[in-house]
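Re: the request from the purification team.
They wanted to know what the chain is likely to look like in 3D before they choose a buffer screen. I agreed to run a prediction and write the result into the notebook, where they can find it.
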Amino acid sequence: MPERTQRATPNPDGFNDHFSGVSRCYAAFRPSYPETLFTWLSDIAPATGEVWDCATGTGQAALGLVRHFRHVTATDASRKQIDAATPHPRISYRVAPAEASGLAAGTVDLITVAQALHWFDIGSFFREAKRVLVPEGVLAIWTYGAVFMENKETDSVLQEFFHSEMGPFWPAERALADSGYAGIELPLRELPSQAFGMSVSWTREELLGYIRTWSAVSRFIRVNGHDPVTDLEKKLVSHWHDGQRHRVSWPLSVRTCRA
């Protein structure tokens, strides 16, 4: 397993918190995962009883999982993220770090980690995952890479912003996500991979709301004292009119392993 490199400055609760300050935007603008992913996970899990959605954020994955599983325990280390999550009668939201879920041993059919493994103490989390999984239980981790757009002019502006302007402000852990977690050795028997993708039809305002949830944008604002997305919007206006919708897509890398 590769060593983790730079860590963000821990907050007083003892974890690297990049998202509590943008929890409302996170809940409103982070994209949903494809239904085909949740269907596939329910097919490969040994049962459709209990799921632990670790680092749930504001519940994007939990809400997809609960359509296929009886109950989801959705945890996040951030109280603000949990407070902003969408309620559901069969989702139990609570504050807990990835490395100490509080779940009983051998009780979980499926563990999911959506766009978050790179923020963990990975070794400690894998030990916790093995502890709580039932025999034949499945651990699924996934991440999506840089956003891209079908409109070439708009995509060119967006890629310049993502790679060049925000490049120095991405936390070092982000490199693991950009690799699709390819360099991480899973702790259990790896299963064959499946291809998935995400795509939405967004207005300019929706895209900018999503970009404001990026950890790099939060770091840029802390360092420079102003919002770089305001300047990005000025560049996009000539290519993207008010109310106009464009296709926005992300590649999705999914890896799974079985106890």
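For the purification team: The chain has a mean pLDDT of 89.
Please add any questions underneath this entry.
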